Amino acid sequence: MDLELLVEIGCEEIPARYFDSILEQLNLRFSQSLSEFKLPAGQIDILATPRRLIVVIHQLASCQPDRTEIITGPPFAQAFENDKTPTRAAEGFARKHHLRVEDLRCMETDKGRYLGFEKKIPGKEAGQILLELLPSILTHLEFPRRMKWEESHFFFGRPIRWLLCLLGGQVLPARLAGLEASNQTYGHRILDSNLRIEVRDFEDYCNQLSKLHVQIDPNARLEKIRGLLQKVAANHQGTVIHDPDLLKTVVYLNEHPSVVCGNFDPSYLRLPREVLITVMREHQKYFSLQDSQGKLLPKFLAVVDSDEVHHSSITLGHERVLRARLADASFFWDADIKISLEDRCEKLKKIIFQEKLGSVYDKTGRMGMLAEFIAKSLKRHDLLEDLRLAAKICKADLTTEMVKEFTNLQGIMGGLYAQAQGISEIVASAIYDHYKPAAAEDSSPRSLVGAILSVSDKLDSVIAAFSIGQVPTGSKDPLALRRQTLGVIKVLLDHRISLSISQVAAKAHSNLKRLPQRNFEETYREFRDFLKDRMKFVFREQGYRYDEINAVVEVDSDNPLECLERLRAIAAMRSSQDFYSLSVSFKRIKNILVKAGLDNNNTLPVDPELFQAEEERNLFRKIESIEPAIRRSRKTHEYQAAFELLASLRPQVDRFFDQVLVMADDKALQKNRLGLLGNLLMIFTDLADISEIVVS
Predict the structure, then answer these.
(1) pLDDT band at residue 694, thresholds of 50, 70 and 90?
(2) Closest C-alpha among 516, 528, 520 to residue 553
């Protein structure tokens, strides 16, 4: 008989940022645990509100299936005498298991034939398993911060106040954090005065809580909030400024969401749009409104855990709080703008970038040198003056009151202050954008100056961290080096900047002077592997196949833009029959050379005078004829043309392997032929290791 399991952990309000991880963990742990205990189950639903975590398992088997276990004793050859009477070993084995010798038989196993029997083991009941399982799963949930609040010293994200647990409509007497499970839960804390109710099953649970102003399904709350925001915004002649992260947050701040619209003094619209939106969003979790022209309106929308009866008083309270917040922001803006960004730079000496890597002031100096190096590498000397100024003052906003209050505005405020202080638009926008991209879906800096500044900032941080051995491990990445390296790759690709990472990294390392604890070779060796992994991730996200990516990145990952262009060429060529056949031949060439102890760094000279077969002469001539064109194509980044030239080798390569014995008895002849294949391998691997291509 199938059962329904309903578990509700009632807590004090859990922070909204915890829920993504908690819900994922609950789903994974219940799925894995039921599988490990071989307890069949149907769909698992994980639901949540700010003060309750809910697990519903449908069609849960009432017990484990019975299983059969083979119990073996002595080897069968030692179980009976020649006259087929049982030996003492056989009799002892039977007696130990309360059986007769006649009940035993020969069991075939991987280790041979043994005397034994099949033992039927009844499955455990679901309730028995769950009493063991539930405390274990909940004890091992991971939270950013955990609390203990009662005598058993149980740790959880927030104190647990009640525990509901029903299996097949009956209370399962699980114990947790000093509480015993019951069939009781509670309605909305305010609207229904935390009314305690008893429930029979999940359907009854949903129905009763719905009447008590509790919507347990976060997706249903999300859709309700989204619809209310659009409706209320339209009623006030505005549209909601898109903010998916804030929307996801407010879903877990409410059990019975509704939306109110408040106003603020239009005089505050003199503040930059970014400041107003951040003030409303960060502290108060308000949504901003704009008109049809995209101009900010002096209004806000708040998602509240209440009903319309209380909206008037709630709105007044929110307006009063926002008034104070905006007054502070206005004061910060007026005070900050009085001091120029250049005058603020000296204060950066007192802000530590990293304990072993000096101050932020030191970092901006390194950024300036690195940005200048990159601009010269790109032959963009016209950008040098703007880059020097941008690098010098880009972190100066860290000393402002606005950024101290709203740290996520760093860079943005620097750009706004630069603009307000009359600094050129090119420099101001570069400063505004230089932290971009903050995530994979974020945009890159708008200008080339901003792109170079962004890459300089990120590569300085990454190389500096690697130089002191501070490398990301597991989930620990305090300097966000993974994100910053992904950012470097994205900016270079988005702006189509062709840049040698190893050369820039060497300059970044030399800028550190006496700070590194590792030399450049050691630093870059580890960083190169780290960079490869990030590049593979970026290219997978763009839809390229894993074998195409490996073929390109494993050969040369120094220039991300070149890697992408070679990758595009391989993807375009792989459907060609010549390319596939050549890939097979390339694997063969590589295997032959590896067995002979040769590779790209250890090749043999080729003497055309030693050729005996016409096929090896033809292959040699073909290689000589196309090699200059391949090198020209690579220099001009025409990689598909280069791969097409390589594919044109197929007839000569096929005939070579059909007619020529590479590992000839004559050692001179053998070395010459290995040298010919080695030259061919070098031409190939200058572009990609096509032996990585999976041929189906």
Answers:
(1) confident
(2) 528
d(CA 529, CA 27): 33
**Residues forming a β-bridge with 473:** 476
Contacting residues for 225 by C-beta, under 8 A, at least 6 apart: 247, 250, 251, 254, 257, 259, 303
Q: Tell me which residue of 255, 253, 187, 183 sits closest to 216, measured CA to CA.
A: 255
- CA–CA distance, 56 with 168 (Å, rounded to integer): 11
What is the C-alpha R_g of the chain? 35
Q: Which token pair is 312?
A: 């008037």
Q: Which residues of 408-424 are buried (b: 16+ CB within 10 A; e: fewer)?
A: ebbbbbbbbbbbeeebe
Query: Where does 529-651 show beta strands of DSSP type E?
Result: none
- Tell me the average pLDDT across 326-347: 96
Task: Sketch out the chain's domains with CATH numbers.
Answer: 2-63+125-211 (3.30.70.260), 68-120 (no CATH), 218-336 (no CATH), 357-543 (1.10.3210), 565-692 (1.10.730.10)
Label residue 601 by pLDDT band (50, 70, 90).
Answer: low
- pLDDT tens digits for range 274-287: 999 999 999 899 99
* 1 — pLDDT class (breaks 50, 70, 90): low
Taking CA atoms, 306 is separated from 139, 212, 319, 612, in Å, by: 33, 12, 17, 91
Cα–Cα distance, 119 to 106 (Å, whole number): 14
**Residues 401 and 332: beta-carbon distance below 8 Å:** yes
Q: Which residue in 598, 553, 579, 556 sits closest to 694, CA to CA?
A: 579
Measured over the CA atoms of residue 638, residue 491, residue 440 and residue 353, the dihedral's sign is positive
Question: Which of 365, 331, 373 is CA-nearest to residue 345?
Answer: 365
Tokens of 423: 């600094």
Mean confidence (pLDDT) of the chain: 93
Task: Identify the pLDDT of residue 317.
Answer: 95
Amino acid at 165: C
Checking phi first, is residue 41 left (phi over 0); if not, alpha (psi -120 to 50) or beta?
beta
Distance CA 133, CA 570 (A): 51
Q: Which one-letter DSSP state was computed for residue 238?
A: -
pTM for this model (two decimals): 0.82
